[in-house]
Automatic annotation (TrEMBL):
One term of GO molecular function: structural molecule activity
Protein name, UniProt field: Claudin
Catalytic reactions of this protein: Ca(2+)(in) = Ca(2+)(out); K(+)(in) = K(+)(out); Rb(+)(in) = Rb(+)(out); Na(+)(in) = Na(+)(out)
Protein family: Belongs to the claudin family.
Pfam families hit by this protein: PMP22_Claudin
Role played: Claudins function as major constituents of the tight junction complexes that regulate the permeability of epithelia.
Segments crossing the lipid bilayer: 7-27, 120-142, 169-192
The organism's taxonomic lineage, starting at the top: Eukaryota, Metazoa, Chordata, Craniata, Vertebrata
UniProt-listed PANTHER family: CLAUDIN
Gene label: Cldn16_0
Length: 239
C-alpha cells in the first residue's frame, strides 16, 4: 500500500508540472528568438499567437498579435497550434482525473477498484497528451533549425535570424513529463490492479469452503432419526 501511495504522488507531481509546462509554452511568445544577441539592442521573440520585441536597455516590451485564426498562416504555425491545444486539454483532464483517483482524496472511498481505474484512465490521457505535445514542439524546433541552417548555407542574411526559444523547450519538457507520468501510472497501477484482483479471486474459494463446512457442521447437529421423523411428518402433513 505504501508503494502504491508513493507512485500515485510521484505521478501526480509529474502530471501537474507537465500540464503546466504545456499550457505555459502554448500561450507564451518565445518559440523563436533572434540568434544574434550580441549585435542586437532588442530581443525579438515569436510565439504561436503574437510576436514581441523587448528593448535590452530599458526592458520595454511591445507585442503585435498575428492576424485572425481564419487568415492564411504557415502550415507549421497552424499545426503546432492545433497539437499544443490538444496536448493542453488532454494533460489537464489527465491531471484532474488523477487527483480524483488519489487514495487521499475522499471521492468514492468505498470503491478502491474504481479509483484504480480512474488512475489508469488518467495515465492513458497523459500518454496521449505527450504525443501531440512532443510532435508539435520538436517539429517546430527542427523546422526553425533547418530554415536557419539553409540560410547560413546559402549565405543569405535577412537582417535577423532565429533559433528556437525557451517556450519550445518548455513544450518538450512538458511532453516528456506527460510520457513519464503516464507510463508510471499505466504500468505500475496495472500491476497493483492485477495483485488486488488475484487476492479477490483467492479469497472466494476460502469463503465458499467456509460456507460448505458450516453447512456440514449444521447438519451434523441433527441425528439421522430426527431427520427421518421430520420427513415422515412432512409426508403426513401433505396427505
Amino acid at each position: 500500500a505504501g508503494m502504491k501511495f508513493f507512485l500515485q504522488y510521484v505521478g501526480c507531481i509529474f502530471a501537474f508540472f507537465s500540464a503546466g509546462f504545456l499550457i505555459i509554452s502554448t500561450w507564451t511568445d518565445c518559440w523563436m528568438v533572434n540568434a544574434d544577441d550580441s549585435l542586437e539592442v532588442s530581443i525579438k521573440c515569436r510565439g504561436l499567437w503574437w510576436e514581441c520585441v523587448t528593448n535590452v536597455f530599458d526592458g520595454i516590451q511591445t507585442c503585435d498579435e498575428y492576424d485572425s485564426i481564419y487568415a492564411e498562416h504557415s502550415v507549421k504555425l497552424v499545426l503546432t497550434r492545433a497539437m499544443m491545444i490538444t496536448a493542453d486539454i488532454l494533460s489537464g483532464f489527465g491531471f484532474l482525473f488523477l487527483v480524483l483517483g488519489l487514495d487521499c482524496v475522499k471521492f468514492l472511498p468505498d470503491e478502491p477498484h474504481i479509483k484504480l481505474r480512474i488512475c489508469l484512465a488518467s495515465g492513458v490521457m497523459l500518454l496521449l497528451a505527450g504525443l501531440p505535445g512532443i510532435t508539435g514542439s520538436v517539429w517546430y524546433a527542427v523546422d526553425v533549425y533547418v530554415e536557419r541552417s539553409s540560410l547560413l548555407f546559402h549565405n543569405v542574411f535577412l537582417g535577423i535570424q532565429y533559433k528556437f526559444g525557451w517556450s519550445c523547450w518548455l513544450g518538450m519538457a512538458g511532453s516528456f513529463g506527460c510520457f513519464l507520468s503516464g507510463s508510471l501510472l499505466t504500468c505500475c497501477m496495472y500491476l497493483f490492479r492485477e495483485s488486488s484482483s488475484g487476492r479477490l479471486h483467492s479469497a472466494y474459494p476460502l469463503r465458499k469452503g467456509y460456507s460448505s463446512a458450516t453447512t456440514v457442521v449444521t447438519n451434523a447437529h441433527f441425528p439421522s432419526s430426527q431427520t427421518a421423523t421430520s420427513k415422515m411428518y412432512a409426508v403426513d402433513t401433505r396427505v
